[in-house]
Structure formats: structure tokens, C-alpha cells
Amino acid sequence: MWTYEKKLQYPVKVSTCNPTLAKYLMEQYGGADGELAAALRYMNQRYTIPDKVIGVLNDIATEEFAHLEMIATMIYKLTKDATPQQLRDAGLAEHYVSHDSALFYNNAAGVPFTAAYIQAKGDPIADLYEDIAAEEKARATYQWLIDVSDDPDLNDSLRFLREREVVHSQRFREAVEILKDERDQKKVF
Amino acid sequence: MDKPYPNDYYKQLEEIQAADFVLVELTLYLDTHPDDGQAIGQYNQFAQYSKQLKRAFESQFGPLQQGSLNSSPNVWEWSKSPWPWQI
């Protein structure tokens, strides 16, 4: 089970109402390489991964849910004071007519989230390589978001999230090595 | 944007976030380096430090975690104190 803590993993400050930026951030909310996809992917793969690396998947999945909450907080804060006209100017009219100011699991182009974004192959190496690729794609997405963002407060939080993808990728790479070592030992004895 | 809560709220919360970040980072590290005694020592040190910070914060600003004490006998503080996206 999980218990909730009433805090974000890292502070999220936004400088000003900016629905255009919120629209871009939806890529990390409901996009293919976003935080929801990451959290659901690892949380589901952990059941069939070898015991030695279950912790890595379990704990990174848990952290991804904290990142999902940070992205949601960014989108919420950037749009909560926006008028319908401002949302329209930001290209969010289609979002507004369906959801008002509610958040939804869409990517930046408005495409709804699908489980087809993620995989569970049952083969530990295949799953972990997918996870490494997912972290690298998310890291790249954060970089592109920082490049298009003009909000210095928000960029501070985005840089934190970008660095977390680097650490997660590293831990998944170590998990691969742990499994390879285990496999090689089995061959010897 | 304006900060709706006292400065001390944000200061103490950031100290908790920093301490808990050490725990998250060491947890992931120990998941792949389970025999590193120095890291386990650091982990235990910060686990205690985080608990201290949370106790101090909760006595002033209300519960941070499910399972924390509700200090008021007749007001449910969990739903009264702000949610993370509201601060």
C-alpha cells in the first residue's frame, strides 16, 4: 500500500499565469514518455522482475508518482487564473470545451494517454532496456521544455526533474549489470 | 506569485523536502548497492533527522502524513491544512 505525504518532492513555483507553458508540460503529464507512463510501466513490471532488482522498480515507480504530482501542480498553477480567452490564445480551446480548467491525461498535442505507450515483456533485460530508454526520452523532453520555457521559477523545478531522470537511468543500468552478473554466476556453477 | 502562508511554513517544509530527498536518493542507491555500510549509516541518520523535522512542522502547521496525530480534539486537521498544489 501507499500512504500520502502532504508535500511535493521538490518545491514548484511559477512566476506568472502562462497557459501556453502549461500546454507544453502536458507532454510530461499524459504523454508517451511522461511521468504517468513511467510510473505505471515500472509499477507493473516489478511483479515479474527478478527479486534482486524489484526494489529499483518499486522505488523509482513511487518517485514517478511524486513527479506526476509536481507536473500537475505546475499545470494547475499556470492555468488556474487563466480566462477562456487566454486559454484559447494558448491553443487550449479544445481542452477547455471538454474539461474547463480541469487537468486531463493528454499529451501536449491533446492526444489522450493510452497503455499502448508502455510495455511489459516479462523478459528482465528487455524490460530494463525499455526503462533506460524511457528515462533518456524523459530527460530529453525535460531539456526541450526548459529550452522553450521563459519562466525561471518553473525552470528550477524542471531542472530538478531532468536530473532525476539521469539518476533513474543510472540505477536501471546498474540493475542490468546485477542481472548479468547473476546469470554469469549460474553458468559457472 | 504570492505566498499565502507564513515564511516559516515554506522554510520548514523545504528543510523536510531536502532531508527526504537524501532518503529517496540513498534508497535508490542502496537498491543497487545493498552492501554499502556507509550509505546505510547515512540513511539511518537522515531517517531520524527527517522524523524530527516533521514532528516540529506538524506541531505548528498540522499533519503532513496519514497516520500523524491530530492535535485538535474536535477539528479534523488533515483536510483543513493546505494541499501541496495550493501553497
UniProtKB/TrEMBL annotation, chain A:
InterPro entries registered for this protein in UniProt: Ferritin-like, Ferritin-like_SF, Mn_catalase, Mn_catalase_dom
Keywords noted in UniProt: Calcium, Capsid protein, Manganese, Metal-binding, Virion
Listed cofactors: Ca(2+); Mn(2+)
Signal peptide: none
Cofactor: how bound: Binds 1 Ca(2+) ion per subunit. Binds 2 manganese ions per subunit.
UniProt binding sites for Mn(2+): 35, 64, 67, 135, 168
GO MF annotation list: metal ion binding
Tree of life domain: Bacteria
Pfam family, one: Mn_catalase
Binding site for Ca(2+): 59
Family affiliation: Belongs to the manganese catalase family.
Protein name as annotated: Spore coat protein CotJC
Species this protein is from: Domibacillus iocasae
